Automatic annotation (TrEMBL):
The chain crosses the membrane at residues 31-53. It comes from Reticulomyxa filosa. Residues 2-83 form the Ammonium transporter AmtB-like domain. It comes from the Eukaryota. The keyword Transmembrane applies. The keyword Membrane applies. ANK repeats lie at residues 139-171. Pfam families: Ammonium_transp (PF00909), Ank (PF00023). Keywords: ANK repeat, Membrane, Transmembrane, Transmembrane helix. This is Ammonium transporter AmtB-like domain-containing protein. InterPro entries: Ammonium/urea_transptr, Ankyrin_rpt, Ankyrin_rpt-contain_sf, NH4_transpt_AmtB-like_dom. SUPFAM superfamilies: Ankyrin repeat (SSF48403). It is a multi-pass membrane protein.
Amino acid sequence: MLVGLLADANLTGAKGNGIVFGWDMASLKFFGVQVLGTVVGMLWSGVWTYILFRTMRKFVNIDINAETELEGLDRKQIGEKSYRFAEMSRHHVLTFELCSACKIGDFREVLRIEKKKQPQNSRIIATSRNATVNMLDYDDRTALHISCCYNQIDVAELLLKCGALVDVVDR
């Protein structure tokens, strides 16, 4: 449709202009055909999408209950266990917050999270008093891994001062 609007015969050598660069009946007709083609294409796609979704709803169970949503579709339906959903949700949140702050280099947020008391039964490497910085994420990475990966040198130095271990290996 942009060709019907913005075509310039002086630049392209075409026979007519688009509506913006001096229009006549031919350019209006050309633009009308483009609009009609776009509308027909959208309707065609919409009809087939509707048919496809109705067919899927009839033959495939795509509705899930709240329990499945909470536990995870892969784990509930096919027993997928590569994700570590069994860990405590507070640990997940704290690890996610810490790794996110390390990724963007948010020095103050890393300090705030490090001062939080770590949850009991959390997956940590060390049992030092500052073990929050050594919590593992889903790929067995620590905050130090993340900060080094994203070249956040100041955050990495802070993590080292807070007791981050340097010899932890991720998967």
